[in-house]
Amino acid sequence: MKITRRRILKSLLFSPLAAAIGKQAEAAKPQPNHCAARPLLLNRFAIAGFRFYDGPALVHRLRSGIASIHITAPGTGRVEQHGVTNVKESGRRQLKPGARLRLVREPDNRHDRFAVAIHLGKAKLGYVPRSDNKHISRLLRQGATLDCRVVEVDPGAVVYQMVKVEVVLTGRLNNPTSSCRS
After folding, report:
1. What residues pair up with 148 in beta bridges, in sequence order?
2. pTM of the entire structure?
3. Between the CA of residue 75 and those of 53, 78, 79, 167, what are the distances in Å?
4. Which of 10, 70, 72, 126 could form a disulfide with 50 if both were Cys (CB 3.0 to 4.6 A apart)?
5. Tens-of-pLDDT digits for all 182 residues of the chain?
6. What b-and-e string marks burial along 121-134, b requiring 16 or more CB atoms within 10 Å of the CB?
């Protein structure tokens, strides 16, 4: 193709017109919904304070095949025994990769106002580590839908590394000031 003065002038004249037509066609296409709910991995971590709560006893008893566990009620010193069905139902079935855990904010915690406890049924396993808890606590306060799941259970590991979990943002915030509208 030979380059001539006429071709150069035509391309200069029609290129802004072609760009404007292209922008109009692009604007007519449906835009993706950035506010749609899609899972977003927030954090993956080992449970903080795991050795001070019910987790190690639960992992140890399940590993050794003992049918019941004893859990000391916090602050009371009272020991509760959970029987065979409770351990089988809430232990073996739930304390494995993929098990859902419950996150509970503790704004009145005297050590950390952003503390978020991690529970498996009635058993408290520990906390979200301090390095990761601010944004999780704030999201819970705003009504975000967070999903906490067990990623790894290793009874042979050091106590503070026995159970690793991940927290995923699964829905959008229930915040009226959000720029996304239903």
Report:
1. 101, 167
2. 0.62
3. 12, 8, 11, 28
4. 126
5. 678 877 777 777 776 656 666 666 666 665 555 555 678 898 999 999 998 988 887 777 656 554 333 444 444 444 444 433 343 444 444 678 888 999 999 999 999 999 999 998 888 999 999 999 999 999 999 999 999 999 998 888 888 898 999 999 987 655 545 555 44
6. bebbbbbbeeebbe
First to last CA, the chain: 54
Lookup: tokens for 2: 């030979």
3-state secondary structure 25-71: HHHHCCCCCCCCCCCEEEEEEECECHHHCCHHHHHHHHHHCCCCEEE
**C-beta separation of 148 from 41 below 8 A:** no
Cβ–Cβ under 8 Å, residues 165 and 151? yes
What phi-psi label fits residue 98: left (phi over 0), alpha (psi between -120 and 50 degrees) or beta? left
Which phi and psi (to 5°) does residue 61 adopt?
-65, -40
Token pair of 53 as six digits? 């709560």
> Do the Cβ atoms of 139 and 18 come closer than 8 Å?
no
- H or E stretch at 91: none
Contact 39, 170 (CB under 8 A): yes
Q: Is 144 helix (H, G, I), strand (E, B) or coil?
A: coil
